Amino acid sequence: MTQIRDPQLLRQVAKRIKKLRAENQVTQDMLFHKTNIHIGRVESGKINISISTLNSICNYFDISLSEFFFELEEEKM
Fold first, then answer.
1. Is this model's pTM higher than 0.85 or not?
2. Residues with Cβ < 8 Å from 37, sequence gap 6 or more?
3. 7-72 has CATH 1.20.120.1730 classification
4. DSSP state of 45
5. Is the separation of the CB atoms in 14 and 42 below 8 Å?
6. How many CB atoms lie within 10 A of CB 22?
7. Angstrom distance (rounded) from CA 30 to CA 43
8. Distances (CA, A) of 43 to 8, 11, 52, 60
9. Would you list the domain boundaries of the chain?
10. Ranges under pLDDT 50 in the chain
11. Of 3, 49, 62, 72, which one is least surrounded by beta carbons within 10 A?
């Protein structure tokens, strides 16, 4: 199966995650130790993360996937 890659969407997701970390004063290291996710690679926008990984990140920040994507849509406007 071919994996579809949307560089613009990946950059938006990366920016949203960085914003969440900044708002919550969470370092990449802190997030890694709690989730085992190498967030630096995600925040670079160079890897196509899975929905499961994104869900784990959202759970860490106590938000739903719908809230995460709602904010992405709001930022476009």
1. yes
2. 31, 53, 56, 57
3. no
4. T
5. yes
6. 9
7. 15
8. 13, 8, 16, 16
9. 7-72
10. none
11. 3
